[in-house]
Amino acid sequence: MGAPGIYHEGSRAVQDRAGVRDLADHVGRAVGDGIKPVAAAFLELQPLLVLGAAAPDTGRVWASPLAGRPGFVRATGPHRMSVSGGLRPGDPLTRALATDGTPVATIALDPRTRRRMRLNGQLRPTEAGFAVAADRVFANCPKYIQRRESYELLPERAAGTPTRGRELTDAQRTFVASADTFFLATAHDGHAEVSHRGGLPGFVRTDSAREVSWQDYAGNAMFLTLGNLAVDPRAGLLFLDWTTGTTLQMTGEGRTEFTADGERRVRFTVSEVIETPGAVPLRWSEPEPSPANPPVTP
User: What are the boundaries of the region Disordered (predicted)?
Assistant: First the structure.
């Protein structure tokens, strides 16, 4: 596929502002539409997949987790990924998984190896769950991924009743402030992206009950996510308690602020919040921080 086919005007604008267009073109050449054998083998080992999409009924963008015994996600062809099972009842993307042709983005992240793989495409509902016809497949570097050596699958863990709100409670603000990882979904012009963000606890700030912000650390120079936000502010955030399985999902709008010293900060305004106790039946071991994590600045 190559760089010209994956970058739109938003990504190009951010790349140019950061002075990394040539690097982005180089990195972009690694993006394809096929699932290579090494990627297929990686997928079959994963107990967690994060999905990003716009809900077809509201247009709001969300990020949602899917979990299961390894093998629930697998490549069933050179351009097709299949997923058995579905989202918890009431998840905001449930209708998206039942709608043929929904543009979706997925990320499989393995804390054990600090590897991650992204696959985007068009969704097709199936009897067992859903499949994605891939149009963009690529891996990212291990930067900012906290290592977790092992996990337990807890099939007896049942999701609690979700609580919904229009702003973050004090307890939810504490949850966000203590997080070392979250997932960020965006969308633009019939395509979706979902990416990982990581850092030391405190790297995400809750500036108010309606605003969350974080410094955008140096990455792969592609700026697919910030490029989407530059032209379409819709976004969804997913925070996960890696021990209890509780999830905190937010939808709203994001914007990127550029400082005179070249740093970037993303500010996210909350429209809706969903907290679900025990939503993910996985319990991971304690984290080992990534050596790439910068110090948290006030």
Answer: 279-298
